[in-house]
Amino acid sequence: MNEKSALIEAEKDTYPIWWMCQQLEVARSSFYAWRARAGRVTATQARRDVLKVEIARIFTEQRGTAGCRRVAAQLNAEGFDASVGLVADLMREMDLAAIQKRAYKRTTIAEEHAAVFTDKLGRDFTPEHYTVGQALVGDITYLRTGQGWLYLAVVIDLATRMVIGWQTAKHMRASLVIDALEMARTQGGAAKEAIFHSDHGSQFTSDDFVQYCSRNGFVQSMGRTGVCLLTG
Length: 232
Known about the structure:
HTH-like_dom, Nucleotidyltransferase, domain 5, IS3 family transposase, 16% strand, nucleic acid binding, RNaseH-like_sf
């Protein structure tokens, strides 16, 4: 055992320790214990080295999604005594940061008896097929901020692919999309009788929005529910 551990120590800058332990059939904990006894490292450092190897293994097994709490829980379940704080420190030293899944917010909520408009674009979103201001598309997305959710409505000119109107708010009422389209209209981004294409979200089928479009000469067009920029 001592000879194998000495070989691993000598070659640690050439090959990964975990790989050499596996090839030589030496338990990693035994190797690190040997290092501590041999005075190569302190007992504390040897323990940290053992934990780093196990943390790297768990992090890889979890495909980079495990944070310090989940890693610490698994370490303790496997018999390694490690606090969340210690695991967090070691993960920082190893530059390991868990991938955070994006929180989901539903922005398209169709009303059962809402107004429905046909697809005036015929699923054609090719910029070259339209003149500037002739065909506009709109949608709502969301942003997480320190003060909570913020909703963003945008209006895009299909011909130029440029955002020509936008508005943010802490709500998803019809006024959010009306304000975004009004920006596009007042700044000269919309042609006369421009097509405005959206999904079937309640904001776009509301009486307020339908009346706004009618008063200002916009021709409403809709794709499938939840799909505004429908390309196929």
